[in-house]
Amino acid sequence: MELKNFSLEGKIALVTGASYGIGFAIACGMAKCGATICFNDIKQELVDKGIAAYKEAGIEAHGYVCDVTDEDAVNALVATIEKEVGVIDILVNNAGIIKRIPMCEMTAAQFRQVIDVDLNAPFIVSKAVIPSMIKKGHGKIINICSMMSELGRETVSAYAAAKGGLKMLTKNICSEYGEYNIQCNGIGPGYIETPQTAPLRERQPDGSRHPFDQFIVSKTPAARWGTTEDLVGPAVFLASDASDFVNGHILYVDGGILAYIGKQPQ
Ligand SMILES: NC(=O)c1ccc[n+]([C@@H]2O[C@H](COP(=O)([O-])OP(=O)(O)OC[C@H]3O[C@@H](n4cnc5c(N)ncnc54)[C@H](O)[C@@H]3O)[C@@H](O)[C@H]2O)c1
Ligand SMILES: O=C(O)C(=O)C[C@H](O)[C@H](O)CO
User: Fold this and answer.
1) Measured distance between the N- and C-terminal CA atoms of the chain, rounded to whole angstroms
2) Are β-strands 36-41 and 62-65 bridged in parallel, bridged antiparallel, or unpaired?
3) Is 180 a catalytic residue?
4) Which fold has domain 12-193+225-259?
5) For the whole prediction, is pTM greater than 0.95?
6) Which CDD domains does its entry note (predicted)?
7) What confidence tens digit (pLDDT) does each residue in 207-246 have?
8) Complex-level ipTM
């Protein structure tokens, strides 16, 4: 039996919002498996820093400024990549924001902003790449979901609504385009050490650990925060031929949080 390989040689990947953080780590991992990396971010300054960081990692990445919520800009980005690099084989919808505000104190505009980046944008970017994937006869779409695709918590109503919707968008793209050999799956990271979660890990004025930091470690069987490197193997798997029969799945990379009721207070 031939082992379907994990190589990404000859594949072109677009990772959104990938100047740093989870997207940067996933892109670096895909590059090490042979993929050509294209990425975007919202500001030239971030793209420039990203290109330098990829170069430092030995990767010649193609960087573009593009706000993923702007449909015209996204369509222009995909057309430019197709012209300059080639047809996108792998899309990672990674760009995202969070606003931690109690729901009744959050404005509708703030709610909409989170939905726009975390849910509408993955729709926009996926819609932009799918036609060429159909023509090419294959495609991989990986949506970066969250624990909040399954669970709620105080202050993250918009984010949870977006990430829950992103889980179902993932399943719907699978349903609608699986027959064209397009696999759309999600990765659901646990709590990962990146700028997005930095406020949850800040030391207290007395030097003690943030209460949320202690809470998450107690809720994680692995008893630690995740790192961006923990996400690379799962992303490469879902981007490779080895996952051609995996579709509509959310792969939770959470150290066991979703399986664990929590430790009895001592
Ligand atoms: N860090 C975690 O614990 C965690 C866990 C689960 C899911 N996630 C998700 O993973 C993804 C990456 O998270 P992260 O922790 O690396 O976040 P981050 O805040 O460190 O990075 C997010 C990136 O997205 C970019 N971005 C934001 N809005 C954009 C827009 N409109 N257009 C283009 N780029 C935009 C930012 O500039 C940044 O480069 C997000 O979707 C996040 O919701 C993070
Ligand atoms: O709960 C929060 O405040 C978060 O920041 C959620 C994390 O970013 C992440 O999405 C958990 O999977």
Assistant:
1) 52
2) parallel
3) no
4) Rossmann fold (3.40.50)
5) yes
6) Ga5DH-like_SDR_c
7) 999 999 999 999 999 999 999 999 999 999 999 999 999 9
8) 0.99
